[in-house]
Write a structure and sequence with these properties.
Blueprint: H1 6-19, E1 23-26, H2 40-50, H3 58-69, H4 76-89, E2 91-93, E3 103-105, H5 114-117, E4 120-124, E5 128-129, E6 133-134, E7 138-142, E8 145-152, H6 162-176, E9 186-190, E10 195-198, H7 223-233, H8 236-245, E11 247-248, E12 259-260, H9 263-279, E13 289-291, H10 301-315, E14 328-331, H11 334-345, E15 352-355, H12 358-363, E16 368-369
Parallel strand pairs: 1-4, 8-9, 14-15
Antiparallel strand pairs: 2-3, 4-7, 5-6, 7-8, 9-10, 11-12, 13-16
Length: 371
């Protein structure tokens, strides 16, 4: 145990990512400008492959890069909000040949083929020059874009705690290398025993462990929870799903609000969505009863419904028996209803929120319906 230092922990985590199919590269082997936080060759390779049938040119690829790297706001938070939306929602790109229609660019492929269609890479010892020189312990790149940053501290060091990893990320790295977090989905802190994740703007008390790889499993703790987090959160298709549907960024916020789902919300959302599809009236035998979701106070109902709305918006559609324009949510709590309307209005995730009398509603055994 005396030899279990931060480097040992770092390399153990690199191996966990390799087991999930990520390419591992040591940062000092990558030829690049030390001030650049992107793996530009990975992005170019992805774009050439993804848009080969569209005849994309090298000039157009560089123009797409310029869109993503442009300064998008006056603060890091504003930059992250606007750039993250470009990454997850895509953007139109003017063609070199003005006679051709604009090409819609998706910097990351969030389709069902995304696990195979994107380039996933885990990199350590990636030195970055900014206001100071910093070397994050681990960075997850998707198509050359730094989507997650990991910081480790050894649990055997009495003078280093998982909170120190949080401070390193949210204070020192944010101050010295802010460009790294312009594209960021979330960050991870770990000492090998305690492993948590949250957004760069999340207070420490709201960082959370991903303790299950699958909903039916027993919650892991200790060292096992680190393995579970990598299997449960960073599995390629799982990571894409979280980045696409479970990162909430309001159109406007008086504070730096960015919410990442917890694993119970992720699993609940997918269970709800599967049930809605199974009961859709657009399917043979469907009764239109999407089901009833019970959530205790403080369990994250809003995040669950936000994820459900987003999943319906992007994964639904007539071909799956789900009209994403016709979603109705019924809540008996007036504060919950108002809060949900306020938070989801900006994202356009749900069209209608109804008030119900909970006792009459459940006594009649009616259900929240999709139409």
């Amino acid at each position: 145990m005396a030899h279990f230092d931060e480097h040992t922990l770092e390399m153990a985590i690199m191996e966990l990512f390799r087991a999930e199919g990520y390419d591992y590269v040591c940062g000092n082997e990558i030829v690049r400008d030390a001030g650049d936080v992107l793996l530009r060759d990975d992005f170019r390779a992805y774009m050439r492959e993804r848009y080969a049938a569209n005849g994309i040119t090298s000039t157009e690829i560089e123009r797409a890069l310029a869109v993503l790297t442009a300064d998008a706001g006056t603060s890091l938070y504003e930059n992250n909000v606007k750039t993250y939306r470009l990454i997850t929602e895509g953007f139109s790109l003017r063609r070199d040949d003005a006679s051709r229609p604009d090409l819609y660019i998706e910097p990351i492929d969030f389709s069902e083929n995304g696990a195979a269609g994107n380039l996933f890479k885990i990199v350590n010892q990636f030195e970055i020059d900014g206001a100071g020189t910093r070397i994050p312990d681990g960075i997850v790149f998707v198509n050359g874009l730094p989507m997650a940053v990991l910081e480790f501290k050894s649990a055997v060091r009495e003078d280093a705690t998982v909170y120190d990893a949080f401070t390193q990320l949210t204070v020192r790295y944010r101050r010295d290398i802010p460009d790294l977090f312009k594209y960021n989905a979330f960050v991870v802190i770990s000492d090998g025993v305690n492993s948590k994740y949250g957004s760069l703007f999340t207070p420490y008390d709201f960082f959370y462990a991903w303790n299950k790889a699958e909903p039916g499993e027993r919650a892991a703790d200790g060292i096992a929870s680190l393995k579970t987090m990598v299997r449960g959160l960073f599995r390629k298709e799982r990571l894409l799903g979280v980045m696409k549907d479970f990162v909430f960024l309001p159109d406007s916020s008086k504070k730096e609000l960015k919410v990442i789902c917890r694993y119970p919300q992720f699993f609940a959302t997918h269970k709800l969505f599967a049930n809605i599809l199974a009961h859709s009236k657009m399917r043979v035998g469907g009764d239109g009863k999407g089901g009833t979701y019970f959530g205790a106070t403080g369990c994250g109902k809003q995040s669950t419904l936000h994820g459900l709305g987003s999943a319906g918006r992007y994964q639904g559609g007539a071909e799956n028996g789900f009209d994403s324009r016709a979603r109705r949510t019924r809540l008996s709590s007036r504060p919950a209803r108002r809060s949900l309307q306020r938070n989801l209005r900006t994202g356009g995730k749900l069209q209608k929120i109804q008030r119900v009398n909970s006792h009459k509603f459940y006594k009649k055994k009616t259900y929240a319906s999709e139409n």
